[in-house]
Description:
Blueprint: E1 10-14, H1 19-30, E2 34-41, E3 45-46, H2 50-62, E4 66-73, H3 75-87, H4 99-122, E5 126-128, H5 142-153, E6 158-160, H6 169-178, E7 189-190, H7 203-233
Parallel strand pairs: 1-2, 1-5, 2-4, 5-6
Antiparallel strand pairs: 3-7
Amino acid sequence: MSTGIGDEKTCLLMFSGGYDSLLASCYLVQKGYRVVLATFDNGLEKNMESVTVNKDRLIKLYSSRIRFLGVKHITGIWRELFLLPYFTGREDFDYELKPMEFICLSCRTAMYVRLIAECLLRGIKLVAEGARESQGYPEQQRLVMNIYKKLCNDYSIGLLLPVYDIPNKERVKEELIIRDILPKTSEPYCIFAMPLYEYEPSEDAVNEMVRLLKEYLIPHAHRIIKDLPDILRFRSGGNELV
């Protein structure tokens, strides 16, 4: 049973309010989609109020083509995927990733878990996000994104990546200017978003992320998704910790 805002032209978008998710919203509207924005909070996000400013900019431009679902908490999901295995000293947890890499990958997976659960609850068949390969983050590289695509497809949900192939941030800004959006944004940021040490992503990190996803994170994601829509359905509000 769904709550019924979805159809084949509705797309649920991970929305931070940054350059890439703003432009992704524009691209989706141009392609005829009604775009539902959802922002995720892992419990360590700052400046969350900026999301309202940025979604209002889109609503002013596109009116009823944009809807804001709200800020959805993923604290409990992220705890299950990150804190429990990482800090309980499991002997089989031998992945060669730096702390920041595991933090970002597990958080992104938690976002997908909540995103898929919201789709199942609301009858939405398409999701999107502002991942861009040229940013260089290992969790946004093609091998990793293909796993997230498959995770979505397992629930008959399509994943769109509207800005994935844009070559650099400057091009993103130019595309926003063309659409009368001043490329000056303030977006929420996680306290882990700025590494505490000099960081250079590597091919080894991407490959290890793929292994972690396949062996641990995705199986656990399926387990959480199984029950999450019912958990959400019977709550009176939309922002409780999950």
